[in-house]
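Subgroup meeting minutes
Present: P.N., E.W., G.H.
Scribe: E.W.

1. P.N. recapped why we're keeping a running log of single-chain structure predictions: easier to compare across weeks, and new members can see raw inputs and outputs side by side.
2. G.H. added today's entry (335 aa).
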Amino acid sequence: MADIANIYKADSKRYDEMQYNRVGRSGLKFPAVSLGLWQNFGSRDSYDNSRAMCRTAFDLGITQFDLANNYGPVYGSAEETFGKIMESDFRPYRDEMVITSKAGYDMWDGPYGNWGSRKYLMASLDQSLKRMKLDYVDIFYHHRMDPETPLEETMQALADIVRSGKALYAGVSNYNLEYTKRAVGLLKEMHCPFIVNQRRYSILDRGIEEDGVKSYCKEAGIGIIAFSPLAQGLLSDKYLHGVPEGSRIAKGSRSLNKTALTGDKLKKIQALDELAKKRGQTLAQMALSWVLKDDEVCSVLIGASTPEQIRENIGILDKISFTTEELNCIDDICR
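Output recorded in log:
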């Protein structure tokens, strides 16, 4: 019994340095920094490196691992990679983890592998659970708005998935203000625990402020988790001097191409970097801190290509606050 107690005490140290924030008005808490598996966990990436990143993240108190059915490449392979890591490393810690998945973008051929139908969502989650070797996910998200499927059908599917025990909570991603409000109303009627909207948010992309989602979610008791907080790497030291060889822009990534780094944007990034240095942070650290500067975002989703990047990102936790002067300076730079 003493040995078990000592092991538990040693394991619990991973939570000492992490900050955990309540997700809206739910009973769930997210780590301030969560790990997204969108990039660098697919079948074309190093499994050993993917495993090392997941282990490093968990050891640092990152308890949330965010996936989707089509993360890879190839589609489904990030979930397969995570399933292997689940079996080799994380099975004893399942109840200490928040594992999420999504469906809404293209996944398989034919008319049933995309968007927001009941058939697609339920089939996709069953496939995801098999790939990840799980009985349930903590949150299942509808990944994007579907202008053709009735929202009532999509929300009913989420509610039934939660009732089935295959997910504990429902979430949405990339939902605008109108769709978020409608989702809140529908899922409330269905008595389904809808707790989070996952949206893109960064110093350079303030869409959730402009469309009112950020303030509405706070009012409605819905949490927000932010993805792309570094604007696909633009808010890091990678592009401070232009486009380096081998970078995502240089490779012509679908999600980030040469049009993203204009001369004007480069000047803004360089000015932000100077401010970050004055704060004693890297540009990436300041960008992550900025997303978490108030209580309207409960977690920031980071991507990583090495364990070292994860360690660097965790370094933001003691410098999340900003002075009014610093916030005004950031706003002035970004105008």
